[in-house]
Amino acid sequence: MYGTLKSNEPNHKQLYSRGPGGAKFCGRAKTLAKFPLLVTTPFNIPFLLHKEGIGHRIEGELYKLDEETLKHVDDFEGHPHWYVRQTVQVEVLTDGQSNKIEPYIVDTWMYGLKRFKPSLLELPLVEVYHDSHYDISRRYRPYDVVRDGPLQSYLFDDE
Prior knowledge:
Blueprint: E1 23-35, E2 37-40, E3 45-48, E4 56-65, H1 67-77, E5 84-94, E6 100-112, H2 145-148, H3 152-155
Antiparallel strand pairs: 1-4, 1-5, 2-3, 5-6
């Protein structure tokens, strides 16, 4: 997890909405490959673009999810129609108690946009997302498609 689902972030509770045992924190990790991670739209949502080789090695948290929680997170992220979950390699840097460990590499899933406006790559890219690091006017705002309308126009050329 690299965005609003991380601990101390606005949507972290989604990991435990199906019960306390649905998600187990396994440690902090960093992608081996570089990816563009940016914060955009009027809702200040972090988006990872599946464009390997551009941006930074993304820092995040590694979780083991049970099947029900994975399905819930897939639904929350709009997989596969909005975000796409794909396998990437990460370097695990801490254990589940956040103690530094000898780094090792694992394959894991990561959500991101496969389709996006090329102009998004011109926006400032971040290595690690922390909503609290932003000025209040740039912090994440909960988004609701019924209330706020579609996000596609901010992200896709053909919508």
